[in-house]
Amino acid sequence: MMMIRLSSSKYKTPLPLGTLGWPFIGETIDFVSCAYSDRPESFMDKRRRMYGKVFKSHIFGSPTIVSTDAEVSKFILQSDAKVFVPSYPKSLTELMGKSSILLINGSLQRRIHGLIGAFFKSPHLKAQITRDMQSYVEESMEKWREDQPIFIQDETKNIAFQVLVKALISLDPGEEMELLKKQFQEFIAGLMSLPLNIPGSQLYRSLQAKKKMVKLVQKIIQSKREGRAGIVSMAPKDVAEVLLNDASEQLTDDLIADNMIDMMIPGEDSVPVLMTLAVKYLSDCPAALQQLTNENMKLKSLKAQQGKPLCWTDYLSLPFTQTVITETLRMGNIIIGVMRKAMKDTEIKGYLIPKGWCAFAYFRTRI
């Protein structure tokens, strides 16, 4: 039976085994280098063998208790705000800024979530995404050559980023899109970096890149605001316009621009990785690939006979395709872990998580 005891005093129970590494740097460099290698789980696996399923470390500027134990991780994630609160690496919070939807709370957060959530469910956006996805995929495939390798993750990153940016700020492929993409690559490189903001550091370069992106997005937002001046009602075409339509004085152009950039992150990371994994899993199972191909080609033939383009509901009508999507999401969990900050000394299964320390509930990937 799992024993849970909360204590207001420090260190009545010994800390888990492990090392805090170098002063300030801790073990961040080792953690990041493993994360970008072909064996991202090696950092955790090595320490788990040395210290056990729960161990101490120091990553991203914070002393941290890492849990690879299912019971301990479950308790960390299910505890209320009196025990643990959400926490993020210092490099990420500095890059996101105080106005990020990840970091704000209260009525403003609920307002933004409600506005954006409703728009993402709208028939207008679903129709636009379906058209854009088909268009960008066709454009990408026209450049493929039989005598050259196709890097699926690079292709999916390019397509997903373009689709997402179009939905956020209505920016089409072109010179500004390429400029945005270039700066975004530098920006996202700093999300997992040492929280050291000095010239030459990755965090410094990433912050400079974000400033350039904000300037570009603010220019687009200002153009939208001027174009809508004097118009009583106009259906929003993108997320930026949804927020511009809101009468709240809290939704400033700076806040909107910051959040448009933060919301581009899935187009660089989670969505492309999952799309790439879907291709890998299907390649490993020829029977599933054939069934998926047959189902989609049948739909394509039917739409051609009707002389109609593919729409959102067409994809939802494909049962095996939906099964492939669901199974990819299940098997390809790309979230490596979740961080929480301890609000008081907490003992779980004989392990102490001191007040003020981070608790990192780690999920081993199945790639």
From TrEMBL:
GO terms for biological process: brassinosteroid biosynthetic process; brassinosteroid homeostasis; sterol metabolic process. Transmembrane segments: none annotated. Keywords: Iron, Metal-binding. Pfam families: p450 (PF00067). InterPro entries: Cyt_P450 (IPR001128), Cyt_P450_sf (IPR036396). Gene3D superfamilies: Cytochrome P450 (1.10.630.10). GO terms for molecular function: heme binding; iron ion binding; oxidoreductase activity, acting on paired donors, with incorporation or reduction of molecular oxygen, NAD(P)H as one donor, and incorporation of one atom of oxygen. SUPFAM superfamilies: Cytochrome P450 (SSF48264). Belongs to the cytochrome P450 family. This is 3-epi-6-deoxocathasterone 23-monooxygenase-like isoform X3.
